[in-house]
Amino acid sequence: MRQGIHPEYGPVVFRDRAANYAFLTRSTMTSEKTIEWEDGNTYPVVDVEISDVSHPFYTGTARVLDTAGRVERFERRYGKKG
């Protein structure tokens, strides 16, 4: 690997503000904000809008659209062609 061209890779805390959830991982992302983690060390923190804890697909609260019902409702409202 060439020296000096790659971003710094180190521990970062990602915090999901919507779910009040945070996890420590390694990343090339950086931030001016810091947080004191459970192990007593201070790490940069990156706030994210959504994570696996708050995303509807992962939490099981995703809604399935009834496309057949929508088509039938459209045909009733505007008439079936053909």
UniProtKB/TrEMBL annotation:
Transmembrane segments: none annotated. Keywords: Ribonucleoprotein, Ribosomal protein. It comes from the Bacteria. One of its GO terms (cellular component) is ribosome. InterPro entries: Ribosomal_bL28/bL31-like_sf, Ribosomal_bL31, Ribosomal_bL31_B, Ribosomal_bL31_sf. The keyword Lyase does not apply. NCBIfam families: L31 (TIGR00105), PRK01678.1 (NF002462). Belongs to the bacterial ribosomal protein bL31 family. Type B subfamily. Part of the 50S ribosomal subunit. This is Large ribosomal subunit protein bL31B. The gene is rpmE2.
